[in-house]
Amino acid sequence: MTRQFTYSGSPAHIVFGNGASSEVGSWVEKLGCKRALVLSTPHQTADGEALATRLGPLAAGTFSGAAMHTPVDVTEAAMNTAKEVSADCVVSLGGGSTTGLGKAIAYRTDLPQIVIPTTYAGSEVTPILGQTENGVKTTVRDAKILPEVVIYDPELTIGLPIAMSVTSGLNAMAHAAEALYAQDRNPVSTLMATEGLRALKAALPVLVKEPRNLEARGDALYGAWLCGTVLGAVGMALHHKICHTLGGSFDLPHAETHAVMLPHTIGFNAVAVPELLRPVADIFGGSPGGGLHGFAASVGAPLTLRELGLKRADLDRAAETATKNPYWNPRSFDRAAIRALLQDAWEGRRPQN
Q: What sequence ranges are listed for the domain Alcohol dehydrogenase iron-type/glycerol dehydrogenase GldA (predicted)?
């Protein structure tokens, strides 16, 4: 049978390797910029300031207020800082929160971005921005959102706590798993998704036992790049809609929510598209949802929405919100189906499919 598909490659520059972050200054100059605003979360303030020091005269200043789910008011504060220091680009150092802030600034100003990821979020290689305002998280896709340069330096992830390494890795896996059944999937995205899942499945158990294993850190970061790339290349479905609902409306932690929901949403969709999810079953063993649940348990990931702080009384509203303006999904659903799925995730039941 003749294949028919459309594939568009990412124009982002990817720089990967131990010590690669030392090249950030040269990349600022290659972008034709002279005044970089360094972004970080409050937790990584010292790291952001150290990076600004290394940039020397190329650093215009720092902003260390990045927050989970990219609140619009934080973006506005960062844009004020960028204007005050006459920044002509942003350098985002950290995980998904910092990357999201840089993307939100670029979306509004078209300032060039350099991202130096220190987690496995994967959002740094997508033209997608998720932002929260008035308790509602929405997403937007635009070419301006895609960072121009991403520098992956495994040495910067050595200190990433194991709990965060695990949930961040499972967050990345969610991108790849949903890419396997995306409406606009293609042979290249499927290959990258499968390879990304394999890399993270191999790396995370090693990191649980040897957090400073640099080879495993590199494998995990490589997997995160692949998973993030497919997130930017094809559409997402039910899993991401539910996670955006739980994060934006109930302020659940981003990576942990992906980690808990992944076995349940993939198990739900495996009923409709078992052949498309066969790579998940092959990599993790058993059924797609059951295999992912077993793997998550083996690396110490959270397994219930209850332990993330979601109350039983919130489940009805979560199901209602998640089924409003739904994303395309390979299996049809209604509010009752999503309510049952959320109940299973709240209790931590192992998916059968």
A: 11-154
Contact 234, 190 (CB under 8 A): no
Q: What is the pLDDT of residue 1?
A: 61
Residues contacting 286, CB < 8 A, separation 6+: 294
CA 292/CA 296 separation, integer angstroms: 6
Q: Tell me: the pLDDT tens digits for 185-228?
A: 999 999 999 999 999 999 999 999 999 999 999 999 999 999 99
d(CA 94, CA 220): 16
Number of C-alpha atoms within 13 angstroms, CB side, residue 214?
A: 7
- Residue 263's nearest CA partner among 178, 163, 205, 332 is 178
Contact 137/126 with Cβ under 8 angstroms?
no
Helical pair 335-347 and 254-270, crossing angle rounded to 10 deg: 120
- Backbone CA torsion sign across 15, 111, 173, 1: negative
Interatomic CA distance for residues 137 and 103, integer angstroms: 15
pLDDT tens, position by position, 236-247: 999 999 999 999
Q: Cα separation of 145 and 286, whole Å?
A: 38
Average of per-residue pLDDT values in the chain: 96
Task: Give pLDDT tens digits for 87-132.
Answer: 999 999 999 999 999 999 999 999 999 999 999 989 999 999 999 9
**Using H for helix, E for strand and C for coil, what is the string for 228-286?**
HHHHHHCCCCHHHHHHHHHHHHHCCCHHHHHHHHHHHHHHHHHCCCCCCCHHHHHHHCC
Between the alpha carbon of residue 337 and those of residues 173, 214, 311, 316, 331, the distances in Å are 24, 43, 19, 11, 11
Task: Yes or no: say if 118 and 158 are a contact pair by the CB < 8 Å rule.
Answer: no
Pairing mode, strands 89-94 and 136-141: unpaired
For residues 17 and 21, give the distance between their C-alpha atoms in angstroms, rounded to a whole number. Answer: 9
Beta bridge partners of 14: 150
List the end-to-end C-alpha distance of the chain, in Å, as a whole number: 29
Strand partners, 141: 128
- What residues of the chain score a pLDDT lower than 70? 1
